[in-house]
Fold:
Amino acid sequence: MPVLLAPDQALSLPDLLSAANTVGLDYRLICSREDSMPMIAGIGSLLSAGAHEISFLSNPKLSSQLEASQAAAIILREQDWQAYQAADHSDAPAWCVVVCSQPYLMYALLAQWFDHHRVMGLSRGIHPTAVLAEDAQIGEGVSIGPFTVIEAGVRIGAGTRIGSGCSIGPGASIGRDGIVYARVTLYHNVTIGDRTILHSGVVLGADGFGLAPNPFGEAGAWAKIAQLGGVVLGDDVEIGANTTVDRGAIEDTVIGNGVKLDNQIMIGHNCRVGDHTAIAACVGIAGSTHIGQRCTIGGAALLSGHLVIGDDVHISGGTSVTSNVLEPGRYTGVFPFFRHDLWQRNAAVIAQLSQLRKRLRSLEKTDNT
Amino acid sequence: MPVLLAPDQALSLPDLLSAANTVGLDYRLICSREDSMPMIAGIGSLLSAGAHEISFLSNPKLSSQLEASQAAAIILREQDWQAYQAADHSDAPAWCVVVCSQPYLMYALLAQWFDHHRVMGLSRGIHPTAVLAEDAQIGEGVSIGPFTVIEAGVRIGAGTRIGSGCSIGPGASIGRDGIVYARVTLYHNVTIGDRTILHSGVVLGADGFGLAPNPFGEAGAWAKIAQLGGVVLGDDVEIGANTTVDRGAIEDTVIGNGVKLDNQIMIGHNCRVGDHTAIAACVGIAGSTHIGQRCTIGGAALLSGHLVIGDDVHISGGTSVTSNVLEPGRYTGVFPFFRHDLWQRNAAVIAQLSQLRKRLRSLEKTDNT
Amino acid sequence: MPVLLAPDQALSLPDLLSAANTVGLDYRLICSREDSMPMIAGIGSLLSAGAHEISFLSNPKLSSQLEASQAAAIILREQDWQAYQAADHSDAPAWCVVVCSQPYLMYALLAQWFDHHRVMGLSRGIHPTAVLAEDAQIGEGVSIGPFTVIEAGVRIGAGTRIGSGCSIGPGASIGRDGIVYARVTLYHNVTIGDRTILHSGVVLGADGFGLAPNPFGEAGAWAKIAQLGGVVLGDDVEIGANTTVDRGAIEDTVIGNGVKLDNQIMIGHNCRVGDHTAIAACVGIAGSTHIGQRCTIGGAALLSGHLVIGDDVHISGGTSVTSNVLEPGRYTGVFPFFRHDLWQRNAAVIAQLSQLRKRLRSLEKTDNT
Structure:
């Protein structure tokens, strides 16, 4: 599992490999019964793949699973295949062998092929219930799902697919060959590059959290700072479910090319995220923080506002970053966890830490006298 | 408050108790005017319940509120009723007495009855604006709200209610007697058991965060690992508003029977959550982590990926779990909070902790010489 | 940038200032060519504003940017204008000068004017695809977007605008002059004051997380406590994208007047948030916690349940609050972050903290003997 194609859609192993191998990887096919290549309808792990599925060995530690695998074919490296043959197996394997220098990359290409096949099977065209402004510019081959609203001045590039129940605000622009899943909101004037993937529940361009004390209101009352900037996304960006990116106060909030954002991330107004930075789920980035290129930020990390994070910085999950980080490297600030009783004991000492240091200093003085 | 029934829908106290008491709890009814049982239209706390509402005493510490209560009836234990009578009250209470060994459970049954009554009053049937694929299999008594889209191959079990603006993707399956509130997304091939409750904004089956370095792209560019697995939910699962559960890479992401998830939780791809585990709001669980049965996880806790958490493990809110937890028990890792000035003093010492230990060791050596 | 008005909509500088200045701020206009006042179509920062945009100097540290600014007009304080003149500039500035005692407030008023202008340009009225219950009470000048569902008994005050794809549940009530963006859900009986702004993905009134052990189920099974209370919002509340506020168990969850909530906040059942309290993104507040007036809570802070937080309490971002905070002031509990290797060294010592204290005490005793 999963079986991804109906039986009559299954491809022969050589056909599938050549269809999926868009980058031209070298590989060699060894089947004991070369006259009858297996038909492949899906992809699975070594232990779950069945008679019409292909599998792969990318981690040599799992090579002990090869013998029992019921897969129709297995992708593995030359050295792993030789090691398998060198071991004492009673028979040649029932599975076909795909010897390849990069099994994980071949798997990734196959997975992309199967998913692309699924997407291509979805209905196309503009659903009759969709509401399109008269002046919207819709490119060739665009699909728009039921109950999606496309407001005035919107532009959508060729080949982009928009699911059901989306709201694309006035003046928004989406590049070509993108996928926007169901129930995504783009506020007015949000601009998105090519080949972007937006998952359900994404909200781009809601107002940033801009407040100032209201000198004419009750004590403590806030005045709203209207948010006039936009959100600009580069090409090849993917954004996970229920993630939000707020519009800028005056300037735009900017997400660079190739940036990957997981689910339930919050990116505040006027932030900038550099090209190819990847951010895991539940991260919060407060307003006006600028993050460099090729960074990674672990899940549920928190970045304060108005910070500068340089290129190639890696923040561990759960870390609260409260000051600039300009040097590349990995940064962490996670309080260790314990059995509850042990935690209580250690947490209590933390309240006395500066006292503890004083006592240590005073002892050191005594000792030196 | 809240008053839940219109005056002409109110039930007499004995009728309500017998209607709600689906599990057959023992109880005894004592009213000073037995000829005229009160009509009950709602439920309230001891101090807020009015002349047509029932209340309950489950925490004996609140028994001082009994005398002033304006409730029509109060559920309480035998011993609390006797203690009330033993105290020096001028008159018999104006409220009827429902003596019951489990007042909180009786309250829970009444609350369920009132809520069930509300749900039963909602409109039924398939709204004419809903878009249903021709081959969708819709069970008896199913309700589907306006602007909901049911894609090809979907199956929905008898009695399930789906709100407005939902998107149920191709091949998804929902069991019987479930409630899906407005604006829920199920991606393709998501499978859900019976009696499931999904709140607004839930997204099940968006792509997991699967990335690999792209050897053919710019420096730092990522290749997407297409996510081919599904999401499988057991029976009796409840999922809170805006929670997301991602689909697996190859295998499914699996949520067991009776699992309760609060709002804004993120469950990564290939996770497994065991039966009857309850997870509070804002928790993030990174990919491939397996959680046992009957666990509880407090709000905003964070679990790293590829972990194993055993059965009956209880994680305190706010804890970052970064390694396996195989033994049952309670685990905590929350940094204590302080007035800001005191925090600054202690946080500064943390940066010198390993130094501090060195100095202590060196003092100990001096002392021992 | 941003240019917010089409060229034919641009206002002359004096007209714009008097239109935006709703509170009657004093200001003085100085233009070198008073016969030809500039036409203003937008607003920008000192360095980004162009020939038809106004800018402002609120932070004197940026006064070095004045000379190079291409803005049509700049708002600044008397002392900053005099300092500019006192410096050795070859020419009078090309920009008009708006001398004003509160430049930031004048900017806020202008930004509000531009945003109000945008909103006023949106289409009005009730879209023909919206589904309205027959007994819904819709005030004068209300706008309702496509595919929005208004259930039985709903009341919407005059002038309120509701976007597309919203679900307004039975008995819900929204005050006047509010803005509800696309894809917002209000469950049944949620009540909202005047001038409220709700951003996309907000869910108000989903069930609180109420569970009790189910004595009739499997070991570990949970019984749902039906949530019968409501959610009540005061006037002038703003709620950010994908934030959720759960309904109360019996009593209501209450959000006071002027409260500002950022994105992806979770407020549990039966919480109360006092007037003018502002809460940054990703904060989680567990059930039944009461927060006072004029508090601020930083991003991703976590408040445990059943706490009391007094008035004028300020919680730093990332802090886990686990006990009552009754005294005004700022409170923090954030673990410092380090380069990963240094973190490892210090985190390891935390596991030995209580041991460390013991060793220190024993040394102190030795020393005193």
Remarks:
- The first strand of chain C starts at residue 11 and ends at 12.
